[in-house]
Amino acid sequence: MSRAPVFNCQTIENAANLALRLQEKILQKQLQKWAEETSQHLQLKELQSWQRGPLLYLRLVFNTDEAMGMNMVSVATQKIAEELEKKFSQVELVSLSSNVCVDKKTSAINQLFGRGYAIQASVKLSEKIIQTVLKTSAAEIFRVHHYKNLVGSNVAASLEQNMQVANVVAAFFLATGQDPAHVVEASQASVFMEVQEKSLFLALTANNLNLGTVGGGTWLPAQSQARSLIAQGKNLSAQELAEVLAAAILAAELSGAAALASQSLARAHQRLGQGKGQNA
């Protein structure tokens, strides 16, 4: 989990100097110490910085154990910022969050570096399964993916190359006690498809799954029960929960693309959706 404060260093020279100092191993170890003083469940893993004139944007990346950890990293970042202000007299914390975190917004930074759990998932479907279950072909599903998720996203200047990741993430987050606002970052997922002879290979890259098994709304009875159903009696870790979500996303992406390829999406909504009586 990341948090990115912005500092006013008064001059461009001071900002550049702070950026260089923050690359020193000794100072990085001090930052780690300050962060870990705020919680025994948190570790500072890495940092990046960007300068704009006298301003320095510092992106801090933490391991937050089994929690999603947004509150934890905010407290740790506040501690780090206060200590940096003491150590460097020209440095002033302007804002604990600078929109470089990037929290609950789409961004190229989150696409490249990730925020939360980064999961890869894949599946290969035979021609028989595609024909009998999905009622279409690998070539038709791939064509929909190409024209919709790739070319269509390019036309719209969208960073997301998927069909409905947000649908699955929203349902999963509400059911398991996560912060639903993080659907925004999680929707920045990419789907890869390739026709292999007459089979279809699919892979999902989801770099921004912000979830946990403790904290937030995870303690609520219904949400605890939902995770118990997923865990099947096991002690489910946050990593494993993210993996289950990735599998659900991949299944929905496949189902949705197949429905479009077979021209059955609208008919399915008419037949199975709410308001059936009104449309009859």
Automatic annotation (TrEMBL):
InterPro entries: HMG_CoA_Rdtase, HMG_CoA_Rdtase_cat_sf, HMG_CoA_Rdtase_CS, HMG_CoA_Rdtase_NAD(P)-bd_sf, HMG_CoA_Rdtase_sub-bd_dom_sf. Pfam families: HMG-CoA_red. One of its GO terms (molecular function) is hydroxymethylglutaryl-CoA reductase (NADPH) activity. Keywords: Oxidoreductase. The keyword Oxidoreductase applies. GO terms for biological process: coenzyme A metabolic process; isoprenoid biosynthetic process; sterol biosynthetic process. Belongs to the HMG-CoA reductase family. PANTHER family: 3-HYDROXY-3-METHYLGLUTARYL-COENZYME A REDUCTASE. This is Hydroxymethylglutaryl-CoA reductase (NADPH). It comes from bioreactor metagenome.
